[in-house]
From TrEMBL:
Domain of life: Bacteria
Protein name (Swiss-Prot/TrEMBL): Phenylacetaldoxime dehydratase family protein
Lineage: Bacteria, Bacillati, Actinomycetota, Actinomycetes, Pseudonocardiales
Pfam families: Dehydratase_hem
Protein family: Belongs to the heme-containing dehydratase family.
Keywords, alphabetical: Heme, Iron, Lyase, Metal-binding
Protein's UniProt keywords contain Heme: yes
Cofactors, names only: heme b
InterPro entries the UniProt entry points to: Dimeric_a/b-barrel (IPR011008), OXD (IPR025702)
């Protein structure tokens, strides 16, 4: 049985794992693997925010422009597009791009066609808002988890393969144990979010050390009709309730932002897949919610009770813990509770 931590990232532990060395998980799970030359990846969430049917066409055209920019030299190795409605009733279309090399991302984002468009004053006069939330986790600061080995979504799509069956899963604390930094670092998080600029116009949020980001996905496109009905009628409502709780009341738990999104085609047609993208003050705040909060425990029980009847449902996640210098958040013409703007304070 393999370890979730790849061989070249292992080191003598100064912090213990939550599981014993002879632990054997109850079912197989794999993680994504990257060649040793991959030291850092990029996850860029590029969003379009609008309100009302009268701005939908402009929003879709803006999303198409962003995705079109992905086709330029040094664009992402993988991307997907989503839709969600936030707590303020605004619709949001988001394209997320993944790069396996930060330098390629920097070259791409500095291209005149990209930087010039984002920086233009026209973004402030448009009928829609746009935002960029970019994190660049180092390979010792993120982990993945998949019960399947083909067609990996998210960051797995730009990496180089999968592991053998790994040991660190199916127990509370396994998420932390899969992150290489956990061998020697508690990753507790420090500092505060700060906003610079005009929250009603163009604003930048400066992150702090060890912000945690989780993308947790659900794909029912390959299920049989009975499975689909079971998932959508008995499991998905529990998931939505938990996600809405974090969206609306997660601030006091340390959740900066939570979006439960539906994957969509570029023309807006929905796909049979969703995921939550959630920013947290620290990994331990995320762990505390997952292990003890009634909303997550109810979701956990709802799934476990039906798991054997959902063999084709594809669940996965990726979790990153990111240093302050490896984050950037920009909001243009968005409402002041968008993303990490909500919890950011102005510097004294």
């Amino acid at each position: 049985m393999d370890s979730a931590i790849d061989r070249h990232l292992r080191c003598p532990r100064t912090l213990s794992r939550r599981a014993s060395d002879d632990y054997r998980p109850p079912f197989p799970i794999v993680v994504a693997r990257a060649h040793e030359d991959v030291t850092q990846v990029v996850m860029a969430y590029l969003g379009v925010q609008y309100r009302g049917d009268e701005h939908r066409a402009e929003a879709r055209e803006t999303l198409r422009r962003i995705v079109g920019q992905f086709g330029l030299d040094d664009g992402p190795g993988h991307h997907d597009t989503t839709h969600h409605r936030d707590a303020q009733g605004r619709d949001n279309l988001v394209a997320v791009g993944y790069w396996r090399d930060p330098e390629r991302y920097r070259r791409w984002s500095a291209r005149p066609e990209v930087a010039g468009w984002w920086d233009a004053d026209e973004r402030l006069r448009a009928g829609v808002g746009v935002f960029r939330e970019v994190v660049m986790p180092r390979v010792d600061g993120f982990e993945t988890l998949y019960p399947f080995t083909d067609g990996l979504p998210g960051v797995g799509a730009v990496l180089d393969g999968v592991s053998d069956e790994v040991q660190e899963h199916a127990y509370w604390g396994a998420m932390r144990d899969r992150i290489p930094r956990s061998q020697t670092d508690r990753m507790t998080g420090s500092g505060e979010l700060e906003v610079r600029g005009d929250p009603a116009g163009r604003a930048v949020v400066v992150g702090h050390d060890d912000v945690a980001l989780i993308r947790s996905g659900q794909d029912w496109s390959g299920t049989e009709p009975g499975e689909r009905e079971l998932y959508l009628e008995e499991v998905e409502p529990e998931l939505r309730e938990a996600m809405d709780f974090l969206r609306d009341r997660g601030e006091r738990l340390g959740c900066y932002s939570n979006r439960y999104v539906r994957n969509v085609h570029l023309d807006g047609r929905p796909l049979d897949a969703t995921y939550a993208i959630s920013h947290w003050r620290s990994l331990d705040r995320l762990e505390r919610w997952a292990e003890s909060h009634p909303t997550h425990l109810s979701l956990f029980v709802a799934y476990v009770r039906r798991a054997k009847r959902l063999p084709r449902l594809r669940l996965y996640h990726e979790v990153s813990v990111v240093g302050a210098d490896d984050q950037s958040y920009e909001y243009v013409n968005c409402h002041p509770a968008t993303g990490l703007l909500r919890d950011a304070r102005r510097p004294d």
